[in-house]
Amino acid sequence: MTEVSTIGALATAPAPAGLAVIRVSGPRTKVALRSLFQSKKNPVDDPRRLILGDLLDFETGQIIDKALAVYMPGPNSYTGEDVGEFQFHGSPRLVERILRSLFAFGISPAEPGEFTKRAFLNGKLDLVQAEAIAALISATSDTALRIAGEQLKGRFSDSIQLIGEPLRDVLAEIEATLDFPEEPIDTKKSDTLRLALEGSRDRLIELIGSYSYGHVVREGFRVLLCGPPNSGKSSILNLILGRPRALVSDISGNHPRYNRRAGRDARLSLRLLRLSWSSRERR
Question: What is the predicted pLDDT for the residue at 112?
């Protein structure tokens, strides 16, 4: 059996900031915390509590930065494995040094989405909830955030379960009938199976019907503003965006004939495209 590796990666944006967080998950998390974090009380001995201490360079033993560390033992963690996190000053150079120290210690670089993949493989999330995390991160409106949050809580999974459970029961009854054809067919049972199938069908139709709304919430509306030069396209574009993103002038032809902008409000996002044509092109 292949031994599960211990992975580590930056959990915050790779840019200068007041704070950066590196996450570690796997069987060597405890050893890494004891070896690379120096404090009066090690986080391993006080799980789920932030401990102040020093992050050490594995190769030189020198202090890299003052940091907070926390240990979350599995299976009660995000990935279902032992998880550790380091919080420190958000300098890209510090991030590079700390990751290099972890990798020198034997921690493997995490692939994109690997923490969530491990959460799925360890039964902490189902596939729909795993996809909801990506939707939550990329949400561009409050509505998209709300829907992704409900999906992460299991609302969509529950809807699928309501469709699938009756179908599994019907399948089991059909298989039993085929296995024992000599048994008489119960009319009441047939009616029950028919109602179960119709109920699943109706829920499935309702679910399919919600796709268009969900797609708009996730991707936004695509709106085309087109017309001849100086017909007010740029003014409308700026009005919708609420800021001067397109040049407005009485002089014809002084800005690009085609451009694209993204606009967002608290509910939905818009993808605005502006297209100009000359009177000669219209002929």
Answer: 92
Query: Which tokens sit at 25?
Result: 């998950």
Parallel, antiparallel, or unpaired for β 83-90 and 7-10? Answer: unpaired
How far apart, in whole angstroms, are the C-alpha atoms of residue 13 and residue 130? 20
DSSP string, 16-64: -EEEEEEEEESTTHHHHHHHHEE-SS-GGGSTTS-EEEEEE-TTT--EE
Residue 215 CB partners (closer than 8 Å, separation 6+): none
- Whether 33 and 105 have beta carbons less than 8 Å apart is answered as no
Query: Has this prediction a pTM greater than 0.85?
Result: no
What band does 250 get if pLDDT is binned at 50, 70 and 90? low
* In the chain, % of residues over pLDDT 90: 43
| Residues whose CB falls within 8 Å of the CB of residue 193, separated by 6 or more in sequence, listed in order | 170, 173, 174
C-alpha span between 177 and 185 (Å, rounded)? 8
Angle 95-2-98 from CA coordinates, rounded to 5°: 10
The tally of CA atoms less than 13 A away on the side-chain side of residue 173 is 17
Contact between 260 and 247 under an 8 Å Cβ cutoff? The reply is no
Reference 150, options 130, 164, 129, 134; nearest CA is 129
CB 133 within 8 A of CB 152: yes
